[in-house]
Design goal:
The complex is a heterodimer. The longest helix of chain A is centred in the middle third of the chain and has 37 residues. In chain A, the strands form 3 sheets. A 4-stranded mixed sheet of chain A has the order 1-4-5-8, covered by helices on one side. Chain A is globular and about 80 Å long. Chain A has 10 helices and 10 strands. By secondary structure, chain B is of the alpha/beta class. Chain B has a single domain, classed as HUPs (Rossmann fold), CATH 3.40.50. In chain B, α2 links the parallel β4 and β5. Chain B starts with a strand and ends with a helix. Classes of the chains: A alpha+beta, B alpha/beta.
Amino acid sequence: MLSEEHAALRATVEEFARKEVAPVIADLYEHDTFPYALVAKMGAMGLFGLPFPEEYGGMGGDYFALCLALEELARVDSSVAITLEDSVSLGAMPIFRYGTGEQKQRWLPELCTGQRLGAFGLTEPGGGSDAGATRTTARCEGDEWVINGSKAFITNSGTDVTSVVTVTAITGVSGGRKEISTIMVPAGHPGFTVSANYSKVGWRCSDTRGLFFDDCRVPLSNLLGERGRGYAQFLAILDEGRIAIAALGVGLAQGCIDECVSYAQQRHAFGHAIGSYQAIQFKIADMETRAHAARLTYYHAAERMLRGEPFKKEAAIAKLVSSNAAMDNARDATQVFGGYGFMNEYPVARFYRDAKVLEIGEGTSEVQRILIARHLGVG
Amino acid sequence: MNIVVLIKQVPDTWSARTLADSDHTLDRASADVVLDEINERAVEEALKIKEADGGEVTVVTMGPQRAADAVRKALSMGADKAVHLSDEGLHGSCAVQTAKALATVIGTLGDVDLIIAGNEATDGTVGAIAAMVADVLGLPDLTHARKVTVEGRTVTVERETDDAITVLRADLPAVISVNEKINEPRYPSFKGIMAAKKKPVATLSLADAGIERIAVGLATATSTVIESTPRPPRLAGQVVTDEGDGAAKLAEYLIGQKLI
C-alpha cells in the first residue's frame, strides 16, 4: 500500500521515535517540559519540511508523508507529534497556501528547518466550534493593522522558538456579515502577549497558551491571503488538518497495542501469561481492529486529497473514527495493565491522558458528525 | 577526497538471532535485518569529511540480495553511490575471504583516499575486517577511532582502548575503523530517501568482480563454526545487603566486573 519512499520514511521515523523519543519522554512529560532537543532533532531530519517544496527549504514530499511521520511519533508520544502537526499544518501550511512569494520566502525556510515553530490562532475564549463568533478585531489604520482581542488554547504559541502566529480577526463588515481575515503576527511583537502554559490533562509536553492583543500594530502587508477570505481559508486548512490529527490518533491507538502485546506476554496471573486468557485476547484483537480500520480511513482521505478530489467528508470520518479508536484503545490498554495502567510512569497512562483531546481539538467529534450529515444532505 | 565505507547488514539486535542448524552460519532469513549501527556511524563520519572537504562517498557491501536495504539506507543518509557484491557462492565466507573479496571490489573503484569501516559488526563480532582489508591492500590501518581528522594528505585518529587513548597519524590512502563514540549518525531525511532511489548501485556477482569462486565460500573458508551453544539465560542478580558497608561492596562488585 505504501510506496517505497513512504515506507522508508515511516521506518525512519519509527526508529527515531523508538530510539530518541521513548527513552526521554516520560521524564519530560512528568515535568511539563517542552521537548526542545527532540524538536531540534526532528528538524534536522527534515520532518518540519515534509510537505513543502525544496525551494522553501522543504523536503519535496507530500501531506501523506507528514501523516505517516505523525502516526509513528504518536505511537510513542503525542506531545511531540502535535508539536510537529501544529507547526506544519497550522503554522506553515496557511503561509504556503495563501502567502505571497515574499511572505513564503520570509517565513517558510525557518519553519521548514524546525528551528522556528509556527502557530495558528483561531479559537477564542468564547467560541471554539462556533468560529463565526470571532470577536478579535483588526482595524486598518494608515499602513497598519491594529489588533485587539484574545485567543485560547493555541499550540506552539509561546515556545522560545516560536516565530509567527497567524490569527483570525474581524477586519470589517460586508453585506451585513462579519468580514474575517487572517493576519500574521511575529512572536514577541509589541502589543502581543501570551499567557503562561496551560496545565492540561494530556499533551503535557506541548506548548499551549492564550494570546492577548492590545493595540498590536503590524504592517498591512502581514495580511495573509485575501482580505475577508479568512473564514474560507481556515475551513480549508482545518479539513487537511483533520487527516493529520487522524494519523496522530491512529498512532496513539497503535501505541496502546504495542504496549499491550508485549505486556500480555510478560505479565502472569493465575499461573499463566495474561495473554493466554480470552479476556485479554479479545481486548487486544478489538484494539488492533480499531487501529487498522482507522488507519485505512486516513489513508483514504489523504489519497483523495493528494489526487485533488473532494475529501471533506472523508477527512471528517477519518478524524471521528481515529479519535474514537484512540479513546477506546487507551481505555482498554489501561485496563489490560490493571493498577499499573493508572500509574503515570507507564506509557499507557500517558496515552489515556493524551487521547481525550483528540475528540475536541481541530473540530470536535460532534462537529465531524455535523459535517458528515451535512454532506449527506441531512440538516 | 574519495571515501569508501564498508557496510554490513546484520540481524537487528532487538530481534531473536540464531544460527542455521545445517552449517552453523547465520540464519539471515529468520531475523529482522538492519544496517549495523556502527556502520551508520562510519557512513556519518564519511559524510562529515565529505561535507568539510568535498569528494565522493561510496558504500561497499557484501551480502545477500536483501542487503540492498542496508545500502539504500546508507544512500538515504547521503552517500553518493554503492557497490553490492552479492553471490550465492559467498555463503559461509570467513573473515579472511571476506576481506580479500572486499579489497578486490575496492580495487575496482579507482583512486580511493580513505576507507572507513565500523570496528566490529554486531553479528560475527570478529572485529578484524578493517585490519585485514588494509593488509590486503597494503595500506596503513588505524582502528578503533573515536575521533578522525583529515588534513591535506594525512589522517589523524584518536584510538581508544581500555587502557589508553593513542593518537595515530598516517598518509592517505588509509583504512580506519570507528568505535561507537565517533559521532551520532543522522536519520535520513525524506529528501535523502527520495534521492537515494536515483543513486547508482552496482550489484556485482563474483564473476563481475573478478573473484574466483574457489576463493570464497564455506568450502574453502579458513575457519568454520563447528558448534554453537546459546548463552544460558541470565542468572538472578547478586543481592548486596547494606550493613554500613553497602557502598564499598557495590564498588567492589563493579570493579570485579571491570565496570569502574
